[in-house]
Each structure stands twice: as C-alpha cells, then as structure tokens.
Amino acid sequence: MRQIILLILAAYLLTACGTVVDPGPASIEFGCAIDESGATVLLKDRATHFPDGTPGGNIAWLTSLGRPVGSTKPEIVLSMSTGAAGGEVVIASNPIQLASPDFTVVYGTLSPALYFTPGIYKLRLVSGDTILAEGQFEVP
C-alpha cells in the first residue's frame, strides 16, 4: 500500500511540476492620460466608459503583463463589437516599437479618430498569434 501511495504522489509531482500553465492574456486598463513623471508609469482617471470622450481627446491605455512582452514589435489591434453573437470588426492594427523585448509594462493612447462611433471597443496587444493583453471600453 505504501508503494502505491508513493507512486501516486510521484505521478502527481511530475504532472504538477512538468505542466506549464498559460496565465492567458493580461488585462488592458483605460483612462484619460498616462503619467510618466514618477518611477512607475501610472494611468490617470481609470475608466471603461467614455460618454464625453476624454479631456485631451485621446483614450490612454496601459497593461502590466507580469512577464516580458517577448518582442520589440508587438501589435495593437482595435476592434469594435458588431453586436452579432460576439462578432467584431477590426478598425486598426498597428505595430508599436519597443526598445526591449523584456518590457513588462506597455502603454499608449488611442486617437478619437479611431473610436468616434458609439459602441463597445476591444483593444488587444498581440505578438504573432499570441494575445498578450486585452481590454474593453465603451463610447456611448
């Protein structure tokens, strides 16, 4: 009986230690501006609902990945919900240039020219076929 328990324990440990768990995409948060004045980049006036746009016009976004981005040229993909069973239409897809693939925090702004139509928008940070981060905001 003791040998069976040890074999089960060994199998469990091998499975637990050998399995790589994908944490899935990190979240992208939105706000009115990015504050780069301190040692840490901060998002000002966090929101997911922008009824009157933002004071500067742009919607700021920030993601803390918890792991290196792994690329110096990930893409930002902005899409809008079509309302039809989770359908989306891509509005813009643009590469962004990073100084290092080791960055764990990525941020930027979206021009109002991209989100002038009322609706629900999704923003994704993508590297190859991998969605690194995603978030959603609404413009009523």
CATH topology: Immunoglobulin-like
Q: From the alpha carbons, calculate the radius of gyration and give it in angstroms.
A: 20 Å
- Mean pLDDT over the residues: 85
Structure annotation, total helices: 1
Strand order of the largest sheet: 6-5-8-9-1-4-7
Assigned CATH architecture: Sandwich
End-to-end Cα distance, whole Å, is 65 Å
Strand content: 35-45%
Number of domains: 1
The arrangement of helices and strands along the chain is HEEEEEEEEE
Total strands: the figure is 9
* Uncertain segments: 1-16
Give a description of the structure:
This protein is mainly beta. It has a single domain, classed as Sandwich (Immunoglobulin-like), CATH 2.60.40. The protein has a 7-stranded mixed sheet with strand order 6-5-8-9-1-4-7, with no helix packed on it. A two-stranded antiparallel sheet has the order 2-3. A hairpin with a 6-residue loop joins strand 2 and strand 3. The longest helix is centred in the first third of the chain and has 17 residues. It is globular, with a radius of gyration of 20 Å.
